């Protein structure tokens, strides 16, 4: 046996039967905080999975939209997590092994919960996980078709809010609203069939921050989903400090409740990297957004 955690089963026999049937054991949302405690032990290395769980604990509507489920290899917390997002026609994965990477690799090879016969995006893929997927390619008959490198930037818990955030002339701040879904979606280079539903869910949960003109048109915006993301400034209004302003505003709002802030910046987006560095973010490593497809 590989250390099934029997706290979540009625008996050892039940736990053993679960292990025989499926190597990835579902962890109910009521126990996600226990997983967070483990991720806190090596900080900030595991800030990304910590914030993933934190966001879905706080905003169950996002969990419902993504149909997010969290699993541990053999039900053992110390093996890490596999979070599966089931969309209308596809799956996304977030994989974070902890101590026993061999257990994670074996579970990915044998699980029936992941459909490797269709394209899958593995989000926030660390180098460790990328190497694991490369080893599994021949066994699972998959290939890595694309991988985009992003830098993981982190604002630590001692950060003070920005006290001198001056609203640009003839502007105001507010949430993004549904009538601007088309604009926001079109500005996102990675949009797909259901991304408008995603942005609407962020809007409904107060997770968008926008700078508006006095004509009520959005000039710049950013969203929060456990990480700060989707920063965008309308092209004709760039180089006016709008992106920096709305980012500072969002940081102040998030720090007021969450305390930990993570941002991703694509490797090629040097301007955005410099902005986040200017605002106090520290580079704590890199990851990839990796697309795998059947061979």
Automatic annotation (TrEMBL):
Gene3D superfamilies: 3.40.630.30
Entry GO MF terms: glycine N-acyltransferase activity
Keyword Kinase: no
Start and end residues of each GCN5-related N-acetyltransferase Rv2170-like domain: 223-289
One cellular component term from this protein's GO annotations in UniProt: mitochondrion
UniProt entry tagged with the keyword Transferase: yes
Transmembrane segments annotated in the record for this chain: none
Domain of life: Eukaryota
Entry's family note: Belongs to the glycine N-acyltransferase family.
Protein name: Glycine N-acyltransferase-like protein
Source organism (scientific name): Leptosia nina
